[in-house]
Design brief:
The protein is α+β, with helices and mostly antiparallel strands. About 30% of the residues lie in helices and about 20% in strands. The protein has helices at about 5-15, 30-40, 120-125, 160-175, 195-205, 210-220, 225-235, 260-275, 295-305, 355-360, 415-420, 425-445, and strands spanning about 45, 75-80, 85-95, 100-105, 115-120, 150, 180-185, 195, 240, 260, 280, 285-290, 340-345, 350-355, 365-370, 375-385, 395-400, 405. A hairpin with a 4-residue loop joins strand 15 (about 365-370) and strand 16 (about 375-385). The longest helix is centred in the C-terminal third of the chain and has 19 residues, at about 425-445.
Length: about 450
């Protein structure tokens, strides 16, 4: 028997050989790509695009199976130093052709340089690679040019409310809009009146639909919606747009018309955070600096984002003790029942005592979430609580990984985990949040 054959026989008898250990990442981009690969979004089970209809839903006789394609995902992180300067940034995306993720090329201004962003279409996403080819009409930002790899930007769900809040606060700081103005929540004498300030806080902290409609009606009546989109485009954030809403009642929040990509949202949050010098330059060469957003607007936006409830996507304090822990953030105490510690947001009660997770929290997460059956989003600023390891970064996630996507280990349960456990987002997203935070701590400690 030859030496080669003897070696082969010995290896076969010894069983499968363990793969070599992964090399630790040396950059944020590598860390995000490794995190996506380990998260395994392509292992998720798809309950179908229509909530409550088979497959999926209570008592569905059709067995749930692993999805043919992973959900689409756009994830961006900008790591900051103590003064708010960008140390490193990265953007990764998941789609049909990159089920374990790919790194996006960023230019000197942290804009995605090799992506042609296309309007979201749920039917096209569910068709997979068999979907018809894109046309120029699918471009989100035609002014960016036609070069780059096609990527459909998922609907940002309630994350778009941050765009409304940004515009209102900036215009108020400029003296063009009064936060004390009273605004009705609809037409007719029975409408409730609240100030712009009150509606804005309710819209952000509780993601209140009525408050959002009231502010959209208010902005439409003043001709501010065109100004909102022009303002964001003027900052070089051309993929942040709100189109198609109805002026009369503030409704119609349509996928494919309301846009937000991860890196543009991350840069907007960086501006809200503030930092010295030029943050980035627009395509026309105009410098975006801290003063672009007046200090009163910055302070108020940070305050309302810090008070947001619903830690259930990248951070998971709202469902404390169930499944994986995400970014170790504290849930605002004013949403907790004083006797049980359960978070209560409007009519939503998460059913878990949040106090143990708050006691072990390490960061504040000043953020806005969005979660529907078909979409999941989360974006904000992470900064350490006093005495905890330093990390400071902005993170933005926009995805089609909504409640329809179930972790495979829970797919055989008789009820959807959202019904049974109030866990309405895949734990894979929490795993992303935890890994991003861990990398930020490690990199800061190493002086990177």
């Amino acid at each position: 028997m030859s030496a080669t054959l003897s070696l082969a026989l010995a290896l076969a008898l010894a069983g499968p050989v363990a793969p070599p250990p992964r090399k630790p990442p040396t950059s944020l981009a590598e860390a995000l790509l490794l995190t996506l690969d380990e998260a395994g979004l392509d292992d998720l089970v798809d309950s179908g695009p229509e909530e409550g209809r088979c497959p999926g839903g209570r008592g569905c006789p059709i067995p749930l199976r692993r999805a043919a394609f992973p959900p689409w995902l756009d994830l961006a992180v900008i790591r900051l130093d103590e003064k708010g300067r960008a140390i490193e940034a990265a953007n990764v995306q998941v789609d049909w052709s990159s089920p374990r993720g790919r790194v996006v090329l960023l230019d000197a201004n942290l804009a995605a340089a090799d992506v042609r962003f296309r309007r979201w279409n749920l039917e096209r996403a569910d068709q997979g690679p068999r979907a018809p080819p894109f046309t120029d009409a699918d471009d989100i930002s035609p002014e960016r040019g036609g070069a780059g790899r096609d990527f459909m930007a998922p609907y940002p769900a309630s994350l778009f409310k941050l765009l409304i809040a940004f515009h209102v606060e900036r215009r108020a700081a400029q003296g063009s809009l009064a936060l004390s103005a009273e605004v009705p929540d609809g037409p007719g004498p029975e409408a409730e009146l609240r100030t712009v300030d009150e509606w804005l806080e309710l819209m952000v902290t509780e993601s209140d639909t009525r408050a959002t409609k009231a502010l959209l009606r208010f902005l439409h009546a003043r001709g501010e919606m065109e100004a909102l989109n022009a303002e964001l485009a003027g900052l070089g954030l051309s993929t942040l747009r709100i189109e198609g809403t109805i002026p009369a009642d503030g409704t119609r929040w349509a996928p494919g018309e309301i846009q937000a990509t991860a890196m543009d949202m991350a840069r907007l949050l960086w501006l809200i955070t503030g930092g010295p010098g030029v943050l980035w330059r627009t395509p026309e060469g105009r410098a975006v600096v801290r003063e672009t957003l007046p200090e009163p607007a910055r302070a108020r936006l940070k305050r309302v984002l810090a008070h947001q409830a619903r830690h259930e996507v990248l951070s998971t304090g709202s469902t404390c003790g169930v499944g994986l822990a995400g970014i170790p953030a504290a849930v605002p105490s004013h949403f907790l029942d004083v006797e049980t510690g359960v978070e209560v947001v409007g009519v939503t009660e998460y059913g878990r005592d949040v106090r143990p997770c708050n006691a072990s929290a390490q960061v504040r997460f000043l953020h806005k979430t969005g979660l529907t059956w078909n979409y999941a989003a989360d974006a904000g600023l992470v900064e350490p609580l006093q005495g905890k390891p330093f990390r400071r970064y902005v993170v933005a996630l926009v995805s089609s990984a909504g409640t329809r996507w179930i972790d495979p280990e829970r797919a055989a349960a008789p009820r959807h985990p959202c019904e049974e456990l109030s866990v309405c987002a895949s734990q894979r997203l929490a795993r992303l949040g935890a890994a991003i935070d861990a990398w930020a701590v490690t990199a800061a400690a190493a002086g990177h």
